[in-house]
Amino acid sequence: MGKLEGKVACVTGGTRSIGRGIADAFLAEGASVVVNGRDPAKGQRCLDEMGAGDRAAFFAGDARRQSDVEGLVDFTVEHFGRLDICCLNSGGVEATAPVASMSDEEWKLEMDWNINHVFWGMRKSLQHMIPRQAGRIIVTSSVEGKLGKPGLAGYVTGKHAVNGLVKAAAKEVGTLGITVNALLPGIIETDIVRETGPASAAAMGLESYEAMIGLFCQESSIKRPNRVEEVAAVAVLLASDAGRNMTGCLFPIDGGTMPY
Amino acid sequence: MGFLEGRVACVTGGTRGIGFAIASAFQREGADVVINGRDPAKGAQAVEELSRSGSGGAAAFVAGDVKLRSDCESLVARTVERFGRIDILVPNAGGGSNYAPVVDMTDEAMAEALDWSFWHTFWTVRAALRHMIPNGWGRIIAMSSVEGKMGKPGIASYVVAKHAVCGLTKSVAREVGTMGITVNALCPGAIETDEMRAQGPSAAESMGITYEELLQTFANESAIKRLNEVKDVAEVALLLASDAGAGITGSLISIDGGTSPY
Q: Which of A110, A208, B56, B164 lies in the 20 to 30 Å Cα band around A38?
């Protein structure tokens, strides 16, 4: 019997990369999962690949839009009758610029994606979880939630902010059977990193995407990128009964990069 | 088939409490397990319990006092002798006695806490690495504490020793990161184990409170307002020991119900 038998989860940015890895791992442990993404075609392909039948569903929506994030939570409850596990995983580097030249619009984009989406999803999920006195909220933060890189101030700031939100919310609901934790992965060569990486590398003053990956690896102890399945395994632990006494935790999955 | 089939683990202070829970979890997943403790009678009983299910890996007991370097080194040697290798080391034992505020603390009390938590970890880690490095695979899961990140008055010897374990963990992780060996520390909140019942009253007295108040203090500082349990810690140890744990090293993992600020 799976560790998440009978549980219902939703995952923002769940059609590929880390979110997809988490969704696949949850399905393998017996959960029902709603994955979210912007593109219905990719959503359908994702469902086809998962082959989980009725236990998987797709909800099209943009994590940078409040109504879409809240809509995902409502859809999950409507579709599967409850919400046990909310993974606020979407996020990334949309705008790359040094702080001195970043526009308000770029800054807002980064904040909507990386912190506001997490706040919207968490607030809405808690409204379902608190009356039931049970729930798991798992936020995908990053090694950049504790460190900093030039040129990526929006991303770095957003990820630091979600760490603060996780710690505060964990204290609020700690006695209500709800845990709130963050995953802090090191660099992973996902589709999204391959897409946005060249711009990030340029913003960081590096000559190539490969140089950026190399830099992240160099900062780690294992001298290689992390892997999606390493993050998914931690998500399963936190989502399962075994994770009931871990909360407010910023869980490193970074091959020994962060100093604390 | 368990995911630790073919692995060999060694757990200090493994006859009861957190150590026994970790040893049981490893054994259940197929690892052969050597547990250490001071009392052969307790050791025999623990091995009997581990073997009772008739499935999973084999279990053996090696008597020894982890406050002695020779016992730590021979524990690792005997693990390799018995099962041919050592893949997973859990230097779990630790503690202190004769707690007092620093102004009144004796050298002996500080030395005991350091021997028990820090030196024993150093001695076993060093000895185990000499086997793990040539094998190109290893998992070291050290036992720190919420007090390895924070501080409490009256128990500085324990706090210092657990902080030292965290420093060692981070340094060694950097040294062996490309060799297939991960090194992490677990930082549990307070758990009411036999060892806590044995050492807690002295710690509480040094803090000027009762044992019950000590436990309540730990619970109050957490987000969950209750103590942790040994199985919480065992589950994280399993994750770190698994293949998926390969990307996690140098981490000080809080299993403290939301107590530690980082």
A: A208
**Domains in chain B, number:** 1
Domain membership flag for residue A100: yes
For A205, counting Cβ atoms within 10 Å of its Cβ (0-12 exposed, 13-18 middle, 19+ buried), the class is: exposed
* ipTM of the complex as predicted: 0.91
**Selection from B24, B6, B1, B2 nearest residue B233 by Cα:** B24
Nearest to B222 among A174, A229, A259 (CB): A174
pLDDT for B54 beyond 90: no
Of the pLDDT bands very low, low, confident and very high (cuts 50, 70, 90), residue A10 is: very high
Distance CA A219, CA B160 (A): 28
Determine, yes or no, domain membership for A211: no
Our count of domains for chain A comes to 1
Kindly state whether residue B259 falls inside one of the protein's structural domains: no
Task: Examine residue A260 and state whether it is found in any structural domain, yes or no.
Answer: no
Tens-digit pLDDT profile for residues B114-158: 999 999 999 999 999 999 999 999 999 999 999 999 999 999 999
pLDDT in tens, A169-226: 999 999 999 999 999 999 999 998 999 999 999 999 999 999 999 999 999 999 999 9
> Residue B226: helix, strand or coil by DSSP?
coil
User: A104-140, pLDDT tens digit by residue?
Assistant: 999 999 999 999 999 999 999 999 999 999 999 999 9
Question: Looking at beta carbons, which residues of chain B come within 8 Å of A232?
Answer: 244
* Residue that is written with structure tokens 């390895």 in the block: B148
Cβ separation of B253 and A229 shorter than 8 Å? no
Domain assignment of residue B164, given as a range: 8-191+228-254
Q: Select from A170, A171, A255 the Cβ nearest to the Cβ of B249.
A: A255
Residue among B235, B243, B256 with most chain A CBs within 10 A, to mutate: B235
Q: Which of B251, B252, B260 to substitute to test the interface with A, most A CBs within 10 Å?
A: B251
CATH number for the domain including B97? 3.40.50.720
- DSSP-assigned beta bridge partners for residue A139: A88, A182
Yes or no, beta carbons of A242 and B228 under 8 Å apart: no
Is A260 labeled as catalytic in the residue annotation? no
Whole-number Å distance between alpha carbons of A232 and A239: 10
Q: What is the CATH number of the domain that holds A132?
A: 3.40.50.720
Which chain B residue lies closest to A245 (C-alpha atoms)? Answer: B257
B54 in contact with chain A, both atoms CB, cutoff 8 A:
no
CA–CA min distance B146, chain A (Å):
12
Q: By the 8 A CB rule, do A208 and A197 touch?
A: no
Q: Assess contact for B124 and B76: CB atoms under 8 A.
A: yes
Per-residue model confidence (pLDDT) at position B1: 76
Find the catalytic residue in A26, A80, A155, A251. Answer: A155
